[in-house]
Amino acid sequence: MTTEDLLDPKVVSSAAEGPLAPLVSVEDYTRMYEASVQDPHRFWAKEGKRIDWITPFTKVKNTSFEPGNIDIRWFEDGTLNVSANCIDRHLEARGDQTAIIWEPDSPEDPALHITYRNLHRSVCRMANVLKGLGVGKGDRVVIYLPMIPEAAYAMLACARIGAIHSIVFAGFSPDALGARINGCDAKVVITADYAPRGGRKTPLKSNTDTALLHCKDDVQCLVVKRTGGQTTWTDRDHDYNALSADASVDCSPEEMSAEDPLFILYTSGSTGQPKGVVHTSGGYLVYAAMTHEVTFDYRDGDVFWCTADVGWVTGHSYIVYGPLANGATTIMFEGVPTYPDAGRFWQVCAKHKVNQFYTAPTAIRALMGAGKEWVEKHDLSDLRLLGSVGEPINPEAWNWYNEVVGKGKCPIVDTFWQTETGGHMLTPLPSTKLKPGAAQQPFFGVRPVVLEPTSGEVIEGNGVEGVLCMGDSWPGQMRTVWGDHARFEKTYFSDYKGYYFSGDGCRRDEDGDYWITGRVDDVINVSGHRMGTAEVESALVAHAKVAESAVVGYPHDVKGQGIYAYVTLMNGEEPSDALRKELETWVRTEIGPIAKPDLIQWAPGLPKTRSGKIMRRILRKIAEDDFGSLGDTSTLADPSVVDDLIENRMNRG
Ligand code: 6R9
């Protein structure tokens, strides 16, 4: 295969043709990568054609990381519709092919196979229902749904009429939902009666009602029936099932500019306030489609399964937009890895003859703990490739994934990327000689640089470590923070001028391969979910009995990182187990179950500098049960608080 061939955008050949040579060989990678960074205009001009344009673009890249002028545009004079790219253009050749396999929470319930033709009908109906509620181009729609087909319909329906969706993970609390509805001034929120997950049911509609108490009166609520369970009904509610039954199955797609926003997705940063990450239409779709095809070696006819939730960016890019843009068959799974038992993932793989399986290290570690017999019960012979995402994967989990799940014959692509990046940034390809735990090499067009953290100087050569930045833009890059472009610049472009700063540290080894070493800011990674320690702190101090709190991460066997909270109580309040439980429940309700502290330590005082800054370095060490090397403590205002914290530490070996 030549570079020219490969640059020809298409999903190639068929899985039925027997053992496959990797789509991109090692030689192709090297040559194409060089081409992509030397002449990004030429490279992306060709790749841009992998999707259909209404008005073809003539400009490819117009991007600036200049301080004071952060401006990112790709394919800016082109027009398109994302939903037409994910559905309509496949109808002729693949109308009867399954687009989405929906696997419900309970294995007792039947799976649904939704063809591209049926997807088209359902999306048009949803689009017409939204139009009927007055939603138009540029309006915001919040989606708070379980992992049901309607979540994908809602995303694509918004894209079809030019509305901007913002998905809120169904595990988030009413408060978090309300803040996101207000944050983007949404016209409609789409929810369901209940969200079944792991045999339990979350009352989404009643959560939404609570959230809406703090929102404008004119926000409307569209309710999908999932369980048929009882809900209360208010004036602003609309019954999705009734409205869609009467809606037309035709809705012509709106012509959108490449740089019109497609979605907003809130993500944690190092401040208490989550940021609304904005992705636009053209560049995002090109990048999601290309990475889905190339990284996962997706071939026509394959069944692809990404186990994420659409509430996270991984679900956006690799359950919905990337796979559907490529005309793939994608699985949407409503359940959890361990319900009804620890064989559920493997049972689903066998049942639907999954070819590519993409999950998070935290799930792998949990299933590893349950034992390999759960895997061996099921026929995984269709698996060709495994993927990992969300956090660094430890070699033990990598080896188990490789040997027990992949039987030593499936390459593992360890994909490093972020909500902000839209798609994979660093990842091995199936032809790469793999190193367990390394994200290894940049995807096409990505220019990683390692900087010295304090001076910001570029560190050249191999065998080096520093912070990970990007030297140039790529089409899937976020464009702004919703409503706050200054915050976009401050967060990502101000610490290291002229670069996009990822927030992660990395090592480039002797061979030039990249290893992510984890966040260098106050963001922790709990079960692959990003959590700002400041968010948990502000939830804790909002409790009447809490005076002060500091939250750090600590190593956790299954979750990767656990949440360790130091809490100073108000004068006169007594620590107790009951209060500890109360604070845990409090954080769950303020943010959601994923933010619940794993360990709470009562701290009579926190270690502070004379200027009042909390020395988190020390708190991290104590939480890690590694207090032998606390480093320089000479700037502490009162060194004795440290002794107390060490003595009463919660995490003992
Ligand atoms: C896609 C996603 C992003 C943060 C990122 C980094 C961590 C993601 C990783 C990884 C090591 C990998 N991360 N993938 N660390 N190896 N393969 O997870 O997006 O939720 O925004 O999180 O996750 O720390 O900065 P998001």
TrEMBL record:
<keyword id="KW-0479">Metal-binding</keyword>
<feature type="binding site">
    <location>
        <begin position="390"/>
        <end position="392"/>
    </location>
    <ligand>
        <name>ATP</name>
    </ligand>
</feature>
<feature type="domain" description="AMP-binding enzyme C-terminal">
    <location>
        <begin position="535"/>
        <end position="613"/>
    </location>
</feature>
<dbReference type="InterPro" id="IPR025110">
    <property type="entry name" value="AMP-bd_C"/>
</dbReference>
<keyword id="KW-0067">ATP-binding</keyword>
<feature type="binding site">
    <location>
        <position position="530"/>
    </location>
    <ligand>
        <name>ATP</name>
    </ligand>
</feature>
<feature type="domain" description="Acetyl-coenzyme A synthetase N-terminal">
    <location>
        <begin position="29"/>
        <end position="86"/>
    </location>
</feature>
<dbReference type="GO" id="GO:0019427">
    <property type="term" value="P:acetyl-CoA biosynthetic process from acetate"/>
</dbReference>
<dbReference type="InterPro" id="IPR011904">
    <property type="entry name" value="Ac_CoA_lig"/>
</dbReference>
<comment type="function">
    <text>Catalyzes the conversion of acetate into acetyl-CoA (AcCoA), an essential intermediate at the junction of anabolic and catabolic pathways. AcsA undergoes a two-step reaction. In the first half reaction, AcsA combines acetate with ATP to form acetyl-adenylate (AcAMP) intermediate. In the second half reaction, it can then transfer the acetyl group from AcAMP to the sulfhydryl group of CoA, forming the product AcCoA.</text>
</comment>
<feature type="binding site">
    <location>
        <position position="541"/>
    </location>
    <ligand>
        <name>Mg(2+)</name>
    </ligand>
</feature>
<protein>
    <recommendedName>
        <fullName>Acetyl-coenzyme A synthetase</fullName>
        <ecNumber>6.2.1.1</ecNumber>
    </recommendedName>
</protein>
<dbReference type="Pfam" id="PF13193">
    <property type="entry name" value="AMP-binding_C"/>
</dbReference>
<feature type="binding site">
    <location>
        <begin position="197"/>
        <end position="200"/>
    </location>
    <ligand>
        <name>CoA</name>
    </ligand>
</feature>
<dbReference type="GO" id="GO:0003987">
    <property type="term" value="F:acetate-CoA ligase activity"/>
</dbReference>
<dbReference type="GO" id="GO:0005829">
    <property type="term" value="C:cytosol"/>
</dbReference>
<dbReference type="InterPro" id="IPR000873">
    <property type="entry name" value="AMP-dep_synth/lig_dom"/>
</dbReference>
<dbReference type="Pfam" id="PF00501">
    <property type="entry name" value="AMP-binding"/>
</dbReference>
<dbReference type="InterPro" id="IPR032387">
    <property type="entry name" value="ACAS_N"/>
</dbReference>
<feature type="binding site">
    <location>
        <position position="546"/>
    </location>
    <ligand>
        <name>Mg(2+)</name>
    </ligand>
</feature>
<feature type="binding site">
    <location>
        <begin position="414"/>
        <end position="419"/>
    </location>
    <ligand>
        <name>ATP</name>
    </ligand>
</feature>
<dbReference type="InterPro" id="IPR045851">
    <property type="entry name" value="AMP-bd_C_sf"/>
</dbReference>
<feature type="binding site">
    <location>
        <position position="519"/>
    </location>
    <ligand>
        <name>ATP</name>
    </ligand>
</feature>
<dbReference type="Pfam" id="PF16177">
    <property type="entry name" value="ACAS_N"/>
</dbReference>
<comment type="similarity">
    <text>Belongs to the ATP-dependent AMP-binding enzyme family.</text>
</comment>
<feature type="binding site">
    <location>
        <position position="588"/>
    </location>
    <ligand>
        <name>CoA</name>
    </ligand>
</feature>
<keyword id="KW-0436">Ligase</keyword>
<feature type="binding site">
    <location>
        <position position="314"/>
    </location>
    <ligand>
        <name>CoA</name>
    </ligand>
</feature>
<keyword id="KW-0547">Nucleotide-binding</keyword>
<feature type="binding site">
    <location>
        <position position="504"/>
    </location>
    <ligand>
        <name>ATP</name>
    </ligand>
</feature>
<feature type="modified residue" description="N6-acetyllysine">
    <location>
        <position position="613"/>
    </location>
</feature>
<feature type="binding site">
    <location>
        <position position="543"/>
    </location>
    <ligand>
        <name>Mg(2+)</name>
    </ligand>
</feature>
<dbReference type="InterPro" id="IPR020845">
    <property type="entry name" value="AMP-binding_CS"/>
</dbReference>
<feature type="domain" description="AMP-dependent synthetase/ligase">
    <location>
        <begin position="88"/>
        <end position="472"/>
    </location>
</feature>
<dbReference type="InterPro" id="IPR042099">
    <property type="entry name" value="ANL_N_sf"/>
</dbReference>
<dbReference type="GO" id="GO:0005524">
    <property type="term" value="F:ATP binding"/>
</dbReference>
<keyword id="KW-0460">Magnesium</keyword>
<feature type="binding site">
    <location>
        <position position="527"/>
    </location>
    <ligand>
        <name>CoA</name>
    </ligand>
</feature>
<dbReference type="GO" id="GO:0046872">
    <property type="term" value="F:metal ion binding"/>
</dbReference>
<dbReference type="GO" id="GO:0016208">
    <property type="term" value="F:AMP binding"/>
</dbReference>
<keyword id="KW-0007">Acetylation</keyword>
